[in-house]
Specification:
seven-stranded mixed β-sheet, alpha/beta
């Protein structure tokens, strides 16, 4: 009986979709994170590549209908990826993702709004992963837990997110890229637990028991959220590393031409709330290794 219990525990520890404690107990291997601009990330480890909100087009104009720029995508997107996760379906998160999915062979995970745009873009149904929040999916070599979340408090708390229409016809206008629901993701990869947020808000109870070693967090409009930085650090049990995301001007070209926001206040807040946490403001398209 005791031996069976030991074997059961060992089985859980080796399962990439197992508990948080099992994930933290496993041996970590190096992973590589690349900031793609806006809320976009490329995360590589164990021979797998996961993309977050890949957005490269940065249209010169947001008037009329807007289409992905194949040259910008070809310049920055990898040739192969396993999964793309979408935090919400605003244009600066979703516009390029279906094209990137078709280019890389990746599955596309997101809300029903994301799935509608993916399907209209020609992504096959067997590569579309619809979510509602609460799912915990095992993939080959990694796993993803979907956490219901909230968008940042746009228009001083006076904006309520809507869904993208069911009968859409591409290309869409800026206004047609509705929020569609917001998610955070817990990616378990190469022994790491990586919490991915794409906008400055969260649901505290959904993060209870989530203790990642790496957190990707957005600072914009955090002043509208009560005790944003310290509450996050407390509920996440002080991650080893925080990477700042969504801090450039998404309507502009990427730096050096575009504008970067001064995030020193956010960095200082995180350090004050969690002195043991290393805070990194990434450079665009620079590969960073985390051990």
């Amino acid at each position: 009986m005791r031996a069976a219990a030991v074997l059961l525990l060992l089985g859980c520890a080796s399962n990439p979709g197992g508990s948080h404690l099992a994930g933290r107990a496993s041996t970590k291997a190096p992973i590589v994170l690349t900031y793609l601009g806006v809320a976009g990330w490329q995360i590589e480890g164990g021979g797998k590549t996961i993309l977050v909100d890949p957005y490269f087009t940065r249209p010169a104009s947001f008037e009329g209908v807007i289409q992905p720029d194949p040259e910008a995508i070809a310049k920055h997107a990898p040739t192969k990826a396993d999964l793309i996760v979408i935090g919400h379906s605003h244009i600066d998160h979703l516009l390029d993702a279906p094209t990137v999915a078709l280019k890389t062979g990746a599955q596309l995970m997101g809300s029903e709004s994301t799935i509608r745009v993916g399907r209209a873009s020609g992504v096959p149904d067997d590569r579309l992963v619809p979510i509602k929040g609460g799912e915990d999916y095992a993939f080959d070599g990694f796993s993803v837990r979907v956490l219901p979340s909230l968008h940042s408090a746009l228009d001083h708390k006076h904006t309520l997110g809507k869904a993208i229409a069911e009968d859409i016809k591409l290309p869409l206008t800026f206004a047609q890229y509705e929020e569609g629901g917001t998610f955070m993701y817990l990616l378990r990869l190469a022994g790491h637990e990586i919490l991915i947020g794409s906008t400055a808000n969260f649901i505290e109870r959904e993060l209870a028991g989530i203790h990642p070693d790496i957190a990707i967090l957005a600072p914009g409009l955090r002043e509208e959220i009560y005790d944003y930085s310290c509450r996050l650090m407390r509920v996440l049990a002080n991650p080893d590393v925080v990477y700042v995301t969504h801090f450039d001007m998404w309507r502009e070209p990427p730096p050096p031409a575009g504008t970067l926001l001064d995030e020193s206040d956010f960095v200082n807040e995180i350090k004050a709330c969690s002195p043991s946490t290393t805070v990194i403001v990434p450079r665009h398209f620079e590969r960073m290794t985390a051990g």
